[in-house]
Amino acid sequence: MTEALKGLRPVLPGEALHARVARTLREAVLEGLLPEGTRLPGHRALAARLGVSRNTVVDALAQLEAEGYVRANARSGTRVAVPGPGNTASTVNTKTPLPLSAWANRALAGRVPDAGGGYAVDFRIGQPVPDLYPAGAWAQALARQARQVTAPLPEPEAELGPLQTRRALAAYLNAERGARVTPDMVMLTAGTQASLDALARVFLEEGRVAATEDPTYPGARAALRATGATLCPVPVDAEGLDPAALPDRATLLYLTPGAQYPTTVTLPAARQSEVVAWARRVGALILEDDYAADLHHGARPPAALQGQAPERVILLGTFSKSLAPVTRSGYLVAPAPVIRVLAGTRPLTDRAPATLDALALADVLASGAYARHLRRARQAIRHRHEVLLSALAATLPNWEVTPARAGLHVHVTLPPGLSETEAVAVAAEVGVALTPAGPLAELPRPPAVLLAFAHLSPERLREGVTRLGGVFLK
Known about the structure:
Layout: H1 17-30, H2 43-50, H3 54-67, E1 70-73, E2 77-80, H4 102-109, E3 121-122, H5 135-146, H6 157-160, H7 163-176, E4 186-189, H8 192-203, E5 209-214, H9 218-225, E6 230-237, E7 240-241, E8 252-255, H10 269-282, E9 285-289, E10 313-318, E11 330-333, H11 336-345, H12 355-367, H13 369-395, E12 400-402, E13 409-413, H14 420-429, E14 432-433, E15 435-436, E16 448-452, H15 458-472
């Protein structure tokens, strides 16, 4: 008992003192340090041992008695009332592997770890761009809508999202993306990854085939593979996915035609037509990830593939890059039969989209605030893209850079003899972080790295390239 009551367990965030005392005693019981029938010291003595007040001990013991861990008796004092190790859930061998499902094992295997570490110039992809977010407009929209939300959404808005948001999105996609969308084709989600997970669970299982570009976005590959389906990587060349390499059968095809991820090339119209013809022939659905459309660097982005075949293409989009990652403002556009299935299965995992974020999104779209924000953001991103291209061309001319038509990174093929591992390691030695492209591909490809640029100032971009030039031109 002396060992068990020598002091309190470390405090947990927000934990009250009497709760901490109760947890200390509870864990001592569950760990066998206070066996069943053990008589605890009196209130004053126990308080002195634990360094707390008598009243704190009284409150803690009252809680433990209500939970059944101790039993108080006027004659025999307070005694432990439950058995120790051998009969409690806490005694499970922590070294025994968790009984994970096949889905969990596949999902965990698909994770791409972050390299971590601090760098003077961090070119790694996935960086937030806070100085380009319309914080003021978004906060005002949230405040306006928060005052108006008074009741749960009616059916079918509970599954699909507020009608006013779906109307605003349909109008925006038709006008800006060349899509063919009606509000009843739109479902709001927590983001593209949530959309991919929902679609993968509905359409894929062991024995089915999902095709993906190669290289591709690892989150898509992980979501599709976690279902147990067979993944068929389709090679990407200088013009994007090669339609001639598509499989003879597939249920889904994951595609980024507007700005292929990660190479950033645009799929030509002729190839788009071939892909659509293939999907119709084999009965596949195309998941078109439109991740970079709002962040294009030219006059206008290419139209969405969905506009060519709305009965065959499911358009996936998110505002996490163009607004902020903290907004749960994703969407998917699908044919009516797909929407009905997703609406029917959604309550099992998600129940409903984030209503307040959805209403705020409708607000910024309808008010013109989003369009004004994009004009400013595109100008800044375009300038930073040009600064990076110019610096790389002047400093590392033997690094083959693919100018990005859209998005927040560039793809750089390394010169012969330089591996991705070596490039990343040498860059890290001079305080520069790069993303290797190899983990994004399953088929053999020339060594390449990715450089994100939108989150860095022009001065920091030039500094990063100068640091690279100092070690790779020796």
